[in-house]
Amino acid sequence: MEEDNLHHSQFQGEGTLSVDVYYKDDELVIISPIAGTSLDNIDVFIEGDILIIKGRRTPPEEIPESAYEYRECFWGPFSRTIALPKKLDLTQTRAFYHNGVLMIKIPKTTESKMRRIEIRTDL
């Protein structure tokens, strides 16, 4: 077995999730297939205008590196950050996890975040 056939060096560190981001009706929808993990191992955060998805995949059994003939699955920590567009109501964000697919829905808002600032004459 040649070392070149093992493909394990690409999985060092943290994995990156694949996502689809699209608009449906009046919502921004983000979906990501996250097979091989439970809901308890996935966290979703919003910080400012950034959506953060973090988690960990744990293999179903411990296999020594020397036993692998071929390795493509990623096991371990993963994350993804997504810059969110303006005009979303982040307070109404909802997340669902079903059949190994994470779906996040964020409604669009028509409200402008611009607000008028009163100009005063005294300091």
Explained architecture:
The structure is a single chain. The protein is mostly beta strands and 123 residues long. It has one domain (3-107): Immunoglobulin-like, CATH 2.60.40.790. It is built from no helices and 8 strands. The chain has strands at 15-16, 20-24, 27-33, 42-47, 50-57, 76-83, 94-98, 101-107. The strands form 2 sheets. The protein has a 4-stranded mixed beta sheet, with no helix packed on it. A 4-stranded antiparallel beta sheet has the order 2-3-8-7, with no helix packed on it. β2 (20-24) and β3 (27-33) form a beta hairpin. It is elongated. Residues 1-11 have low confidence and may be disordered.
Helices and strands in order, then pairings?
Elements: E1 15-16, E2 20-24, E3 27-33, E4 42-47, E5 50-57, E6 76-83, E7 94-98, E8 101-107
Parallel strand pairs: 1-6
Antiparallel strand pairs: 2-3, 3-8, 4-5, 5-6, 7-8
Spatial strand sequence of the major β-sheet: 1-6-5-4
Radius of gyration: 21 Å
Please report the number of helical segments.
0
Q: What kind of oligomer do you see?
A: single chain
What would you call the shape? elongated
Largest sheet: 4 strands, mixed
What is the count of structural domains?
1
**Uncertain runs with pLDDT below 50, 5 residues or more?**
1-11
User: Can you tell me the CATH architecture?
Assistant: Sandwich
- Helical content class: under 10%
Mean pLDDT: 84
Order of helices and strands: EEEEEEEE
> In the CATH scheme, what's the topology name?
Immunoglobulin-like
- The span between the termini is 78 Å
Query: Strand pairing plus helix content: what structural class?
Result: mainly beta
Q: How many E strands?
A: 8
The CATH class is Mainly Beta
Q: β content, as a range?
A: 35-45%
